[in-house]
Every structure is written in structure tokens, then in C-alpha cells.
Design brief:
about 300 residues, about 75% helix, mainly alpha
Length: about 300
């Protein structure tokens, strides 16, 4: 009997893909996400080119005024991968919502359709079922992230003036790998609250509320940034030290759980072609992901009622 279990896990994973491709909400969010990804490279490159042109025009004007002692171009030596920094905002916002939808719909779909009783007629444990669901979710999310990477790489190749080396394409792949870890947390939360909540709307609202806390509230409390300024290096704490004591205290309290800041720092390190400082942030992200995965499997055993599992 146990020989039937591995194929059943494969069936669950395969069905996740098929069902997800029929989800209109998922397809809409994915389409928006990939479209914004395609144009993000051009937007970043255009901004960089405009800044570069302004610098050279300023140097030419100063030369006509007899000024020769001009600071070097601030863009010299800056990694060309930073044209992708707009993707941080898209991943923090649209990508996280897409991941929540993937995790949420994974369980809600089967609870609403009455598939759960048929699944547990087979000799499969709840832990193995949870593993199969999570595996299907993560593989679907990996497919989304790889498609996003492919669109980004294609966009870069279509801009002749943007020359990326082979190692820079690898760093870009690393950037999307870090993004996968960040998004995986929200996909797991979507599944977790779909399991523990009997109300479909509540199951979606709670992970979205946690997403708002991660992206907006915690960074603002810990750094004094504006709500949409996760990428802003100038904070109240370092601009006005006397007024930054509150934010220093908040950083001590909430810093260890500031997933958005961990992800942002790691992703920017990769876009700067610097992988040396990634061990601790990515290790923390993996710990968050592993913990959420374990809790999801535990919650499945604790919160699936008899009504869910009876024919």
C-alpha cells in the first residue's frame, strides 16, 4: 500500500499546476507582474542614461565657465545590475500578493470542491499531504520566478547599450533566488491560514495584513522611513540622530522579524554584484521559510475537521 503514496504525492503536485493555470486571479496577477518586469529594465536603464547625460551636460557647461575641478561621474563603477532595482518594489508588492494567492487557493480550492475526503481514502498521511501541497506551491512559485528572470534577461538583451557579463547574469539569477525565498514565505502563509481558518475571506485577509506589516509598518517603525521607502537609505535615525532614539528602540525590537528589510538588503547586495554579505540574511530567510513550512504541516493535522475528511 505504501508504494502508492509517492505517485499520489506526484499527482497532488501535478494537479497544483493544472488547477493554478485555471485560476483567473492568478493569471491576471502573473500577467501584470511579467509585463511590469519587461518594462522595468527599460525604466531603470532610461533613468541611468538620463542621469549620465545630465552629468556630462553639467561637466560641459562648467568647462565653458572655466571650472575644471569636477567630481567624478557617480555612475562610474556602479553595477549595471542596479537598473533592475525597480523589481524590488514589484516583488515586494505584486509578487508577494501573487504568492499569497498561490498558497491560499491551493487549499481553499480542495476544501470547497470536496476533494479532501477522496485524497485521504488513499494511504497518505496528513504530513505527507502537506508536504505534497507545499512542494506543488513552491514548484509553481519557482516557475513564476524563473519566468520573471527569463523576461528580465531578455529585456536586458534587447537593450544594446546595457552590456551584462556572464557573471552578472548569474548575480541576477541569485537576485531572483533570494526573491523566491522571500515570496515562499508568503505562499506558505497563504496555505497556513487557508488551513486554520474556516472562512475563505478571513483566510486571505490575515496573510495580506501580515504582508502590509512586513512591507509598510515594520520598516517605518524601525527606520523612520516613509511607508513606501524600503529602498531609501536616508532614515530619520541617521539624518537626525537626536530624533532617532525611538526608531533605534523599534529596530532592536522588530529588526529580527523585519523580513522585508532582510530581503531588500540581500537583493541589493546581489544587484551590486556583492555576494559576501548574504550569509546571515539568506540564512534568516531560510529559517522563516522552514518554520512556516513546519507549522503548515502541523496545522493541517490540527485544523482539518471531520467534515473536511468525510465522504
Amino acid at each position: 500500500m505504501r508504494k502508492d503514496v509517492p505517485p499520489l504525492v506526484a499527482v497532488i503536485v501535478r494537479n497544483e499546476w493544472r488547477a493554478l493555470l485555471r485560476e483567473k486571479t492568478f493569471l491576471l496577477l502573473l500577467g501584470i507582474f511579467l509585463t511590469m518586469t519587461f518594462f522595468s529594465v527599460y525604466i531603470g536603464w532610461s533613468t541611468r542614461s538620463t542621469t549620465n547625460a545630465i552629468y556630462h551636460a553639467s561637466v560641459a557647461y562648467l568647462a565653458t565657465q572655466g571650472v575644471t575641478n569636477v567630481i567624478p561621474n557617480p555612475l562610474d563603477g556602479v553595477s549595471p545590475l542596479l537598473v533592475f532595482d525597480n523589481m524590488l518594489i514589484y516583488i515586494l508588492l505584486i509578487g508577494a500578493l501573487l504568492a499569497i494567492v498561490i498558497g491560499h487557493r491551493s487549499f481553499i480550492r480542495e476544501r470547497a470542491s470536496g476533494v479532501l475526503p477522496l485524497t485521504f481514502v488513499r494511504p497518505v498521511s496528513k504530513a505527507r499531504y502537506a508536504f505534497a501541497k507545499l512542494l506543488g506551491i513552491f514548484l509553481a512559485l519557482a516557475g513564476v520566478v524563473f519566468a520573471t528572470y527569463s523576461v528580465s534577461a531578455l529585456s536586458a538583451l534587447l537593450i544594446p547599450a546595457l552590456h551584462l557579463s556572464g557573471i552578472e547574469f548569474l548575480y541576477l539569477l541569485g537576485f531572483y533566488a533570494a526573491s523566491f525565498l522571500y515570496l515562499g514565505i508568503f505562499a506558505s502563509l497563504g496555505l497556513l491560514f487557508a488551513i486554520v481558518s474556516r472562512n475563505e475571506s478571513t483566510a486571505l485577509f490575515i496573510p495580506i495584513l501580515l504582508w502590509v506589516a512586513v512591507v509598510f509598518i515594520i520598516p517605518e517603525l524601525t527606520t523612520g522611513q516613509n511607508p513606501v521607502a524600503l529602498l531609501n537609505p536616508v532614515t530619520l535615525a541617521n539624518a537626525f540622530p537626536d530624533q532617532g532614539k525611538f526608531f533605534s528602540l523599534m529596530s532592536t525590537i522588530f529588526g529580527p522579524i523585519s523580513i522585508g528589510q532582510f530581503y531588500t538588503r540581500s537583493a541589493l547586495d546581489l544587484l551590486r554584484s556583492n555576494g559576501a554579505a548574504l550569509v546571515v540574511p539568506l540564512g534568516a530567510l531560510l529559517a522563516y521559510l522552514a518554520a512556516t513550512t513546519g507549522v503548515s504541516a502541523y496545522a493541517l493535522g490540527r485544523h482539518t475537521s471531520a467534515n473536511d475528511l468525510q465522504l
